Amino acid sequence: MELVCPAGNLPSLKAAVDHGADAVYMGFRDDTNARHFPGLNFTEGSAAEGIRYAKERGRRVFVAINTYPQPHNWPRWQRAVDHAADLGVDALILADIAVLEYAARRHPELALHLSVQGSATTYEALRLYHEHFGVRRAVLPRVLSLPQVEHLIRNAPVELEVFGFGGLCVMVEGRCTLSSYVTGASPNACGVCSPAHAVRWEETPQGLETRLGGLLIDRFGEGERAGYPTVCKGRYRVGDDLYYAIEEPTSLNTLELLPELARAGVAAIKIEGRQRSPAYVAQVTRVWREAIDAVRREGERFRPRADWQAALAKVSEGNQTTLGAYHRPWQ
Q: How many other C-beta atoms lie within 10 A of the C-beta of residue 296?
């Protein structure tokens, strides 16, 4: 299994490469990728330097151009595809079918991966992307159980990449518009959920409050770990109860499923977190490198080490982890 790690900027890319990533994924500094946060992503110069750094060490580089262009800004997505091809990246991670068609026609030699934003969950959908656009790999949405992933691997004509670790959001991969209601911007079209300009942190007599577009998302007591405000992970009053009414902050962690994922034939494990710090990338990459290598040596005897789980717990949302949809008996 290939280990694919996030690179939100050049220091994170170097951290991922230095700590064992087989491949890194990155985006340009505009709304063509789904992590369009201020201070993140790559300029033309830093992208070239990062790609050179990774390739000199035998690692692969993927570029995510995985938002959905609108009629007025379509040329920007074309330029992003051309720019990535000129840089010599190993693959493009795309979602929109028009961008896929443009890339396949303009750069037929370039490997294309279907982004998780494409939300393909059936082998019939994967076959369509493969036959029409030559897609070679797909990143599966985090909504499938392990048996469903295994079924796809047996029948899909493309390699499959699954998420191994990182934050979870509500199960509408690639189609979330929640933040649009309070900020006017969605990750689909603008590349950002909860844009920084709409975020407010305020100390109040009741505690630290986080707001998004003026909407109170959460209030934290003394010593309570405060998360970045997103609509889906706010605490709201429903009737007489105040709780995480949509989704509780938690991180996916599939370390204990690694032998099953390897046996099923998963091509790559993806680590979420291009918005995270280089220190986060270094720590998570190191743990997953050691774990994947251990699975190769030990096979079914593999057991996650306690120090790995402790290291991941420190960087998990809300200090909580879950197997998520991979382990849902009712699915």
A: 11
d(CA 320, CA 166): 11
Could you report the per-residue pLDDT of 272-318, keeping only the tens digit for each?
999 899 999 999 999 999 999 999 999 889 999 999 999 999 998 87
Residues annotated within a binding site:
169, 176, 193, 232
Can you say which residues are annotated as belonging to the binding site for [4Fe-4S] cluster? 169, 176, 193, 232
Distinct helix (H) and strand (E) counts, the chain = 11, 15
Name the residue with tokens 């890194």.
24
pLDDT digits (tens, 9 = 90+) for 225-255: 788 899 988 999 999 999 999 888 888 999 9
Per-domain boundaries in the chain: 2-168+250-322, 172-244
Please state whether the predicted TM-score (pTM) of the whole model is above 0.90.
Answer: yes
| CATH class of the domain defined by 2-168+250-322 | alpha beta
In tens, the pLDDT along 127-165 reads 999 999 999 999 999 889 999 999 999 999 999 999 999
CA 157-160-161 angle, to 5 degrees, is 165
Gap between the Cα atoms of 243 and 249, Å rounded: 11
CA–CA distance from 226 to each of 149, 223, 234, 267, 318 (Å)? 34, 9, 11, 35, 8
**How far, in Å, CA of 206 to CA of 104, rounded?**
55
Following DSSP, what letter does each residue of 223-269 receive, concatenated?
TPPPPPP-GGG-EEEETTEEEESS----EEE-GGGHHHHHHHT--EE
